[in-house]
Design brief:
Shape: globular
CATH architecture of the largest domain: 3-Layer(aba) Sandwich
Strand order of the largest sheet: 2-1-3-11-10-4-5-6-9
CATH superfamily of the largest domain: Ureohydrolase domain
Oligomer: single chain
Number of helices: 14
CATH topology of the largest domain: Arginase, Chain A
Number of strands: 11
Helix content: 25-40%
Length: about 400
């Protein structure tokens, strides 16, 4: 029976490849490698302040690599460089009109200063750090007005245009724009707004100087593989798992209903992670006639470290609890709160982040956000005396 099921999956993958081959050709490894190389040169010119050169390089990139997943980011650098040097940037917007992929809408809608809702306020080592990305200011206001958090314990941090618009960018280059995320306090909760920015969690996690277990609540595995080594909100877990300080990763709430299951299967599942799924799949096909067994939401968590980092993408919640730009999972708010509380009984939460709400979050989403914050905080955020960064 297992053999027949595996054979069926192999046949399905073959048919999918045959079907896809009749459409737009996927860039091969040499194309992707060349694009990454030129993106690195473009990045160097931009970060070095040579905006005339970065404008030209961005234009060259857009001409040569119209199918690169990094096209929106290169185009945005061109647009920004053009604004600084007074050059016409309509070329980049026209090129993006022909592109379909993550980041396109963000860059096409870019206006200098757009997205800033408040003036930066508070110290970055505050207990609650709100990075001023779309929708975050509304979250801050709700939590303060409803006495979930105190205004004196909050900081609103300016994200910067690069963090806001480079939604898909190599992680070793994107780090140059992560200054706003340095100096965050031990144990604090960081708010990133949309699920488009879940990958920002990577930069905080990698800076811990001690062994940690990372618990990710998410409807997606965020473990997508690609020939161009993509880094974004859908692939950051893979880069995070490569960090020496991360001793174990637990993914909770992965949606394995039929539609979502095939989406996540295409993205791949990490074999070294404990995966608690919410759906019908007991296992997932990994290729080469191998299957990875999945746990259910009631399975016990085996956490090898004292310190735990919690990352919450609220799209794991069912539609009754939240509205997101990335759909909904099937997990209840009580399930999330219960698991967080169980972790806290034997471990200490050394940091956390929350994302997934829309730019204009609705009432149910804000209420759910408040409940998750309360679950993490409990009787108060842990005060950690020693330096853990």
């Amino acid at each position: 029976m297992i053999f027949v099921r595996n054979l069926s999956l192999v046949f399905a993958v073959f048919l999918m490849g045959l079907f896809c081959s009749s459409g737009v050709r996927t860039p091969d490894k040499s194309y992707c490698a060349a694009a990454l190389g030129e993106l690195g040169v473009l990045h160097g010119a931009y970060t070095g302040g040579d905006y005339t050169r970065s404008f030209v390089l961005a234009k060259n990139f857009t001409d040569k690599f119209p199918r690169s997943v990094y096209l929106p980011s290169a185009a945005w650098i061109g647009i920004k460089s053009g604004l600084i040097t007074g050059q016409d940037n309509s070329f980049f917007r026209e090129a993006l009109q022909k592109f379909e992929g993550h980041g396109q809408k963000q860059v096409l809608g870019y206006e200098p200063g757009e997205g800033r809702k408040r003036e930066p306020a508070g110290a970055k080592d505050a207990e609650y750090v709100f990075v001023d990305l779309p929708g975050v200011a509304a979250q801050r206001d709700y939590l303060i007005e409803n006495n979930v958090v105190s205004a004196k314990d909050c900081a609103l941090v300016e994200a910067g245009d690069e963090m806001r618009n480079l939604l898909r960018y190599p992680h070793d280059l994107l780090k140059d724009f992560m200054g706003p995320l340095t100096g965050l306090g031990n144990g604090s909760i960081c708010f990133y707004g949309s699920g488009n920015y879940h990958h920002l969690a990577y930069y905080r996690i990698k800076n811990f100087q001690r062994d940690i277990t990372v618990v990710v609540f998410d409807a997606h595995t965020d473990y997508r593989r690609g020939s161009d080594d993509i880094f974004d909100c859908g692939s950051w877990v893979r880069a995070m798992m490569e960090q020496k300080n991360v001793k174990k990763v637990i993914l909770i709430g992965i949606n394995t209903d039929k539609k979502w299951f095939y989406e996540n299967n295409a993205f791949r599942f990490p074999e070294d992670a404990l995966i608690l799924q919410q759906g019908d799949a007991r296992s997932v096909y990994m290729g080469k006639f191998r299957r990875l067994r999945l746990a259910n939401m009631e399975s016990p968590l085996v956490i090898p470290t004292k310190d735990v980092y919690i990352s919450v993408d609220m799209d794991l919640l069912a539609e009754a609890y939240v509205t997101t730009d990335w759909g909904n999972g099937k997990v209840s708010l009580d399930q999330v709160a219960s698991i967080i509380e169980s972790i806290k009984r034997d471990h200490r939460i050394v940091g956390s982040d929350i994302c997934a709400l829309t730019e204009l979050p609705d009432a149910k989403s804000l209420e759910s956000l408040g409940r998750i914050v309360q679950a993490i905080v409990g009787s108060g955020l842990l005060t950690i005396e020693e330096d853990i960064f």
